[in-house]
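FAQ

Q: What does a record look like?
A: Structure on top, sequence underneath. For example:
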């Protein structure tokens, strides 16, 4: 006993001396060790089963409970990954898709460290980011948080981000594990995919986060994988994450994504967030006593929590650093550089950019995103900065004294659209002796069922379908169905937009002259939908909106307006006065958001705004804001200059101004493929699940397999609008002198790829050298080429740099389902080098033999 106590004391002294040196801020977590494991053992031994179970359920939304009996502190979390959210204003960084467009892992590391510093200023132990789900289709509502369509690019960036953040002794949480590739019906949908597709496309970034980044926490997703919820998916959590990859950190649920306490406990989940609704004492104590959940399983969860907290210094140090300003001047230049590197120039005909300021005296800035500032998409990643100039105010300040900036939103806001639609009651109602109908244009009937059968329980009359803006119209008893019946009489011939919206997850169907034009089923979140229909002057159409609310308040709206009246008179007049027009089009936190998928088309009215601007002044620059590609077919051919700024955080306007003015050459590269249309996307036919009966699980079949994004385009030969890896600069680059040195050592393949990259233009800028590998002799079907390495290279005019990049065995391998491991087939391999998936001027073949 005496010897044990002395050994224990010695272990503690070693641990504390190591921790004291290593847990100083900006040092990073200490490695696991026997001393840490002994300390964990002793802490666990002091706890009762009930105390242990209390620790595996969160509290107060963003905390892990304290356990005073073993000196375990309360652990504070923050939403992420674009900045520290929920604890006051803080630095707002570029969204993940923009980070991916930088193709700069070193910058990702600086961003991670900056967010880590912000976390310390708020006393945050765990940041709930980064997100690394693959960009499967453009509509997914959280694509903007993630790193694009390629697993290798995602892997390099996530490792940098994690290393940066955890260097500050702040835990990064890689999410959402796994195959969470749509927000639509995210709690119920099953992502159905084979093991090869899972391993090759959807897991590599998570694997790199664990094996290379040493990430401290992983978050399970809401969706099911092959019919089983992620939070209770033992194959995903136990077999792959904890056994195959050796993950020793904390596996937590996404908020309210736990559905069965016993299944989650046995399925590998360590902490249920934000509350123990399922993994609680009531459920788990009987399960342990009955042998349904071994107590060793509970102990493993506690060990993971304690081990991680010790490694990051949480038990021995106060996490809040009061010397760090929450408005960080140190972090602002990092955010600015990230925004600068992320902006992708997709078109620049007739040398439209950079602006020749000697000829530009008036700039018209148009668009819903031009003011106020749009720093990020919506949902739990949305960060509130202390200060963020909008595009309009930022450009006005930037060009002060050189050019004046005029501004118009360009299209009316939603409330104006809803409030200024003139509806008419059907004649049979207007003629009836119903005093309540006088002077109103819409009949509202409430039903006690969702199929609108039988007699309405109440009838009333209102001026418009606008219960979002008129709360007094929403004070009804909870209805199952609400029918709005009206008529609309156009004053002139033309195409008219019928714009419908609902909140709170309500469903609706819109009928025009008895024909269904829009159908929206009930889901967690819903974006506005619209249809464009030709109408004749003075010919009345019958309009009916059948609305099924998802709660007691009515949140439906309907507007009708002629397309040629969507663009405001003010915008047209301002455009006519300008030497150049900048249209800031795209999405924002209300139209691209966690909880629902966005539209592929730009939000209503924005195509018309771009077309109107181009008609007035061909020198129109379109700047896209959003999380990915959009439908551009109506205006892309006429647009001379197109930039994608993603969601560029608090410094985005300054970054964009630097590029517009030529102070900085654009250097972003697409982390996604831009097809000509949604129909060209390889997931088009299987992105959403077939309709299933109420209560049944909808299954999304990943029918494209590994042929996601550019992998499909390069294999089929179909040319996209803008390829993966593409981006223009204000200069030109040339590749030359390719050499490849292959090798096989003890059965393991590798290669060294070297080449020269030269800036052949007159402006300093950066190019991204991309190395792709093809396997034409493979025994299974593989993409023609796949990205396997890259390097961002900055060069002055005329400068040449010799670049050498390595390819490891994984660069040549695929996942063999029969062998349940990575495998490569001996034979010929193609090495292709260039700066996009469609531009690889250097290509050669090598042969690898086992």
């Amino acid at each position: 006993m005496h010897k044990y106590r002395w050994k224990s004391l010695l272990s503690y002294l070693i641990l504390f001396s190591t921790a004291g040196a290593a847990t100083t801020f900006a040092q990073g977590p200490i490695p696991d060790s026997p001393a840490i494991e002994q300390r964990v053992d002793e802490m666990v031994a002091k706890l009762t089963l009930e105390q242990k179970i209390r620790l595996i359920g969160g509290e107060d939304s963003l905390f892990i409970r304290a356990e005073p009996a073993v000196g375990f502190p309360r652990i504070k979390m923050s939403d992420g990954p674009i900045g520290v959210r929920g604890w006051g204003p803080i630095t707002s960084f570029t969204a993940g898709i923009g980070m991916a467009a930088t193709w700069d892992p070193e910058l990702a590391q600086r961003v991670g460290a900056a967010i880590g510093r912000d976390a310390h200023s708020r006393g945050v132990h765990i940041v709930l980011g980064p997100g690394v789900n693959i960009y499967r289709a453009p509509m997914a509502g959280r694509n903007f948080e993630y790193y694009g369509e390629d697993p290798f690019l995602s892997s390099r960036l996530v490792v940098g981000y994690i290393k940066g953040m955890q260097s500050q002794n702040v835990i990064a949480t890689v999410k959402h594990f796994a195959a969470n590739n749509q927000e639509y019906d995210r709690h119920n949908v099953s992502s159905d995919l084979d093991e090869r597709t899972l391993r090759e496309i959807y897991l590599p970034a998570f694997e790199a986060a664990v094996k290379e980044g040493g990430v401290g926490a992983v978050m399970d997703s809401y969706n099911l994988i092959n019919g089983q919820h992620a939070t209770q998916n033992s194959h995903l959590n136990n077999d792959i994450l904890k056994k195959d990859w050796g993950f020793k950190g904390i596996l937590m649920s996404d908020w309210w994504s736990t559905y069965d306490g016993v299944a989650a406990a046995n399925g590998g989940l360590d902490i249920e967030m934000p509350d123990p609704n399922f993994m609680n004492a009531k459920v788990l104590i009987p399960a342990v006593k009955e042998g349904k959940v071994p107590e060793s399983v509970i102990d493993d969860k506690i060990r993971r929590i304690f081990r991680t907290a010790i490694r990051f210094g949480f038990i021995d140090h106060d996490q809040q650093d009061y010397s760090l300003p929450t408005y960080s001047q140190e972090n602002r230049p990092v955010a600015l550089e990230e925004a600068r590197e992320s902006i992708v120039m997709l078109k620049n005909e007739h040398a439209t950019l950079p602006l020749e300021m000697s000829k530009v005296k008036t700039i018209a800035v148009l668009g819903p995103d031009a003011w106020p500032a749009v720093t990020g998409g919506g949902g739990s990643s949305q960060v509130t900065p202390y200060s963020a100039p909008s595009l309009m105010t930022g450009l006005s300040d930037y060009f002060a004294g050189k050019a004046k900036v005029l501004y118009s939103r360009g299209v009316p806001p939603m409330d104006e659209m809803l409030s200024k639609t003139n509806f008419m009651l059907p004649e049979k109602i207007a003629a009836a002796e119903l005093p309540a109908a006088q002077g109103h244009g819409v009949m509202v009937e409430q039903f006690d069922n969702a199929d609108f059968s039988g007699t309405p329980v109440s009838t009333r009359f209102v001026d418009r379908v606008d219960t979002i803006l008129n709360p007094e119209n929403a004070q009804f008893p909870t209805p199952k169905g609400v029918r709005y019946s009206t008529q609309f009489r156009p004053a002139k011939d033309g195409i008219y937009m019928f714009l419908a919206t609902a909140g709170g997850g309500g469903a609706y169907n819109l009928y025009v002259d008895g024909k269904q034009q829009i159908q929206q089923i009930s889901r967690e979140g819903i974006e506005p939908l619209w249809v464009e229909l030709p109408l004749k002057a003075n010919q009345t159409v019958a309009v009916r909106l059948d609305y099924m609310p998802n709660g007691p308040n009515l949140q439906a709206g309907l507007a009708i307006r002629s397309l040629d009246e969507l663009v405001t008179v003010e915008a047209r007049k301002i455009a006519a006065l300008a030497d150049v027009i900048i249209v800031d089009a795209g999405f924002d936190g209300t139209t691209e958001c966690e909880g629902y998928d966005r539209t592929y088309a730009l939000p209503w009215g924005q195509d018309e705004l771009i077309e109107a601007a181009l008609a007035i002044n061909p020198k129109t620059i379109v700047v896209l804001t959003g999380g990915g590609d959009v439908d551009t077919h109506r205006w892309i051919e006429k647009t001379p200059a197109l930039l994608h700024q993603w969601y560029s955080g608090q410094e985005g306007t300054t970054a964009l101004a630097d590029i517009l003015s030529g102070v900085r050459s654009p250097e972003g590269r697409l982390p996604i493929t831009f097809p000509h249309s949604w129909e060209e996307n390889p997931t088009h036919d299987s992105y959403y699940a077939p309709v299933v009966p109420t209560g049944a699980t909808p299954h999304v079949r990943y029918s494209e397999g590994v042929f996601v994004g550019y992998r499909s385009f390069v294999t089929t030969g179909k040319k996209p609008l803008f390829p993966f890896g593409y981006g223009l600069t204000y200069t030109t680059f040339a590749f030359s002198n390719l050499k490849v040195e292959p090798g096989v050592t003890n059965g393991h393949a590798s290669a060294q790829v070297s080449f020269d990259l030269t800036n052949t233009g007159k402006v300093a800028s950066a190019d991204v050298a991309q190395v792709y590998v093809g396997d034409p002799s493979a025994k299974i079907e593989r993409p023609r080429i796949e990205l396997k390495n890259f390097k961002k290279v900055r060069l002055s005019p005329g400068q040449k740099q010799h670049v050498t990049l390595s390819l490891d065995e994984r660069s040549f391998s695929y996942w063999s389902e029969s062998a349940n491991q990575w495998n490569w087939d001996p034979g010929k391999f193609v090495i292709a080098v260039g700066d996009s998936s469609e531009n690889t001027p250097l290509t050669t073949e090598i042969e690898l033999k086992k």
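Q: Is there anything notable about this one?
A: The first strand starts at residue 63 and ends at 64.
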